[in-house]
Task: inverse folding
């Protein structure tokens, strides 16, 4: 590898990158610097712009503005293949190799050793074996790649990338599906490669791993650069603050006037409810007229909790009760039958049916609840649609418009309307304000409060701590797929949530000030 | 590899089937019958080799039967009506076939259309064009035809290995080498695994797609010429449904219909199994020849069910520990 570069010179220099998708500004003036031989963690919550940045740098998306320099020379790859040729290789969480081909073929596809027109199979296997041995892997390279574990596939992908003379290696969530032992092997390989002068970008939401392996951390939030720090001098609490974007000092009590805490009727309760390898058992009580917020970092188990509560995922332990009576929540149908509703995070893929009209989307859940043999008449449908369009102020107020043509905020309202039409007792909202403009934000929050005042029980997931603090009566804090703390009343503020998230863990010894 | 590879299962079915048939009609176990079986299925064997490449790459080619039909008519007319020397006629029709395949491949790639639809259109186009040339059967009396038809290698036991059977076997061997030993072959599997991934890994997906359909159409053209030798005539209705027979042979041979896995040898065995069933029915004499189709259908179903089972097994990766030294 030719890395006779001046170590002071950055290997990869990204300056002022901007990228918009339609009206959404995914990246704004982002800078990123990678030095040769360092492992650099790229962090941020969902929607912070990590993936977009990677895809812009590797030419998957064209960029709107900015420059990328590799070893001092400006590069502008137009495709992942061109980026690879320039020396920037990416290994994604879903391994981009071919499971039906042998390990050796995967390593040497399109560049097999040849004699005349014939692939030298023996030579190719020998080279593959030698290459993988360098990565501490001793496997039968003639077997199909799909026979091996994800860890082996990851290492194979990295080996291929490095062998293609990569100078920059981008690893996007490489550890998400690996066990502890496999992670260690991967880290060993990463250190070895860094030692050879390769610059490694490590994207992960496992903060422990970030502290273990990385030299430097760059944090993005909402498509903007928050900062670049040395890992050793960045306390964990500070890092989480950077990611979630809150300063302890400004823990404004934007909290709405505390409502009287009268003993409310319990709507649904969960005792030692959980699923192995999914979410650790938790206790959760949801009362009528109350909002419970779920706070935590990406991957902490918030969405998982919501799916268990709704029945989208089957719990393998614990007991759920609705109105005091024990129930079994085996499927979303069960959830709906007990009067639960769930607005998932991925509106576009899991929620709305973009081609159908606002009216059709709104009556969807109600019709499903009634069953096929009791169809809603067109007049009833019109009536329901009109009521909710008015009540939630859906714009434009045209029930026959395809939902795909509405703005994000209005799509969210249509989803809400769909569940409200079934007159639920419990509504689970996963990131209800994600991807919605600021005006609509406030409106959704106002709606949440109103619904709650009408006796509905709400379980709300949000990465926006300010929001959670504003509308929640109680906040459950999650970390590493477990419920670790429940805050109520006066204790609910952004600072306490941050402290709970950052607490304990394996914070660096020198990061004690906070 | 755990379990039996699908090709081995096909081989076992063939051997077992042959043994059963031979028990009932001992005459079946003779080089004479085997020679005839190879001759009768020569055109199917050739076209099925092309189909194997297409299906492994994740596509399908429904046009091959029509291309065979068109080829027989074109060759017959060229030689008999237009007095073109047979060799020139062959070169011309093969060039035409290759161009036809290239066009289909290009349309599939450029417009990102399902191969099913594009080759279905190709099927109607080629069949229609052959009717345009002639609606009647055109006998071919050129001397080459009698020379080739009479040529045969004597096998021990009195069997005849005819010229067209030899061509078929040569193409099977050549096809197997192309698929299993060359970079082109590896890319065919890569395409069948995932087009996006293959392209990310540097395979020129567009060029490959075009080449694969060119190969399939070329082999269909050769199969058409072989078919015209077999029948000594050109007829626009010949080889109707052969695309389906060849797909059946490919699948019975252990190739995944979804692409990514399979072999030319398996396809050859699949062709032989279909030929064996046909031979058995001829020997029996009382059965309707449509029983061939029924038996093929049952076998096809059994093999698809089997493959689904194998695929389901393969989906659960064996967690072999990575022999770590670091």
Result:
């Amino acid at each position: 590898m030719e890395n006779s570069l001046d170590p002071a010179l950055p290997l990869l220099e990204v300056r002022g990158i901007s990228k918009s998708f339609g009206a959404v500004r995914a990246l704004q003036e982002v800078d990123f610097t990678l030095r040769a031989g360092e492992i650099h963690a790229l962090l941020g919550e969902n929607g912070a712009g990590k993936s977009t940045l990677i895809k812009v740098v590797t030419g998957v998306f064209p960029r709107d503005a900015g420059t990328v320099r590799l070893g001092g020379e400006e590069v502008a790859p137009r495709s992942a293949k061109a980026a690879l040729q320039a020396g920037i290789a990416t290994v994604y969480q879903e391994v981009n190799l071919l499971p039906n081909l042998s390990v050796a073929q995967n390593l040497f596809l399109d560049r097999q050793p040849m004699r005349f027109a014939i692939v030298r199979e023996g030579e190719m296997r020998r080279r593959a074996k030698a290459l993988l041995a360098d990565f501490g892997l001793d496997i039968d390279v003639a077997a199909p790649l799909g026979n091996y574990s994800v860890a082996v596939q990851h290492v194979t992908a990295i080996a291929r990338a490095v062998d293609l003379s990569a100078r920059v290696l981008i690893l996007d969530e490489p550890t998400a599906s690996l066990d502890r032992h496999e992670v260690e092997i991967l880290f060993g390989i990463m250190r070895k490669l860094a030692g050879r002068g390769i610059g490694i970008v490590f994207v992960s939401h496992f903060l422990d791993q970030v502290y273990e392996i990385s030299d430097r951390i760059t944090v993005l939030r909402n498509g903007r650069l928050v900062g670049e720090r040395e890992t050793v001098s960045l306390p964990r609490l500070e890092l989480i603050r950077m990611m979630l974007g809150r300063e302890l000092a400004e823990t404004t009590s934007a909290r709405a006037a505390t409502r009287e805490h009268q003993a409310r009727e319990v709507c649904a309760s969960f005792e030692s409810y959980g699923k192995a390898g999914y979410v650790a058992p938790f206790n959760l009580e949801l009362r009528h007229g109350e909002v419970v917020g779920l706070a935590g970092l990406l991957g902490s188990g918030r969405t998982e909790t919501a799916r268990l509560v709704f029945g989208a995922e089957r719990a393998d332990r614990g007991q759920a009760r609705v109105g005091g009576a024990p129930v079994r929540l085996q499927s979303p149908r069960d959830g709906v039958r007990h009067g639960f509703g769930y607005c998932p995070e991925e509106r576009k893929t899991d929620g709305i049916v973009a081609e159908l009209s606002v009216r059709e989307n709104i009556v969807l859940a109600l019709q499903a609840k009634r069953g096929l043999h009791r169809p809603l008449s067109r007049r009833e449908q019109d009536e329901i649609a009109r009521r909710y369009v008015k009540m939630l102020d859906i714009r434009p107020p045209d029930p026959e418009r395809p939902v795909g043509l509405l703005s994000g905020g209005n799509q969210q309202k249509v989803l809400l309307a769909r569940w409200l039409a079934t007159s639920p007792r419990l509504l689970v909202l996963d990131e209800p304000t994600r991807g919605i403009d600021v005006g609509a934000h406030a409106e959704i929050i106002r709606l949440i409060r109103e619904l709650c005042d009408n006796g509905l029980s709400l379980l709300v997931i949000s990465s926006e701590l300010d929001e959670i603090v504003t509308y929640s009566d109680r906040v459950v804090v999650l970390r590493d797929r477990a419920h670790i703390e429940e805050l109520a009343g006066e204790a609910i503020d952004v600072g306490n949530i941050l402290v709970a998230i950052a607490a304990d863990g394996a914070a660096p010894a020198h990061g004690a000030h906070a | 590899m755990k379990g039996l590879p699908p090709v081995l299962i096909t081989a076992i079915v063939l051997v077992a089937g042959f043994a059963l048939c031979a028990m009932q009609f001992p005459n079946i176990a003779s080089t004479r019958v085997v020679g005839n079986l190879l001759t009768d299925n020569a055109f199917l064997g050739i076209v099925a080799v092309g189909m194997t490449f297409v299906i492994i790459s994740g596509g399908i080619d429904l046009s091959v039967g029509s291309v065979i039909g068109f080829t027989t008519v074109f060759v017959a007319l060229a030689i008999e009506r237009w007095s073109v020397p047979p060799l020139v006629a062959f070169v011309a029709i093969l060039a035409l076939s290759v161009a036809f395949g290239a066009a289909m491949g290009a349309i599939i790639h450029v417009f990102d259309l399902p191969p099913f639809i594009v080759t279905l259109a190709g099927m109607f186009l080629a069949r229609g064009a052959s009717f345009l040339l002639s609606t009647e059967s055109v006998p071919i009396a050129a001397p080459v035809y009698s020379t080739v038809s009479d040529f045969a290698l004597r096998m021990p036991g009195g069997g005849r290995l005819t010229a067209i059977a030899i061509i078929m076997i040569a193409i099977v061997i050549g096809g197997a080498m192309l698929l299993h030993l060359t970079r082109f072959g590896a890319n065919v599997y890569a395409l069948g695994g995932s087009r996006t991934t293959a392209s990310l890994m540097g395979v020129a997906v567009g060029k490959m797609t075009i080449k694969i359909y060119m190969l399939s159409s070329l082999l269909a053209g050769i199969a058409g010429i072989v078919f015209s030798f077999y029948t000594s005539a050109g007829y626009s209705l010949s080889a109707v449904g052969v695309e389906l027979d060849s797909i059946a042979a490919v699948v019975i041979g252990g190739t995944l219909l979804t692409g990514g896995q399979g072999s030319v040898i398996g396809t050859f065995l699949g062709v032989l199994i279909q030929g064996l069933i046909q031979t058995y029915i001829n020997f029996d004499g009382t059965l309707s020849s449509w029983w061939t189709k029924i038996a093929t259908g049952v076998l096809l179903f059994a093999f698809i069910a089997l493959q689904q089972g194998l695929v389901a097994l393969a989906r659960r990766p064996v967690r072999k520990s990575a022999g770590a030294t670091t």
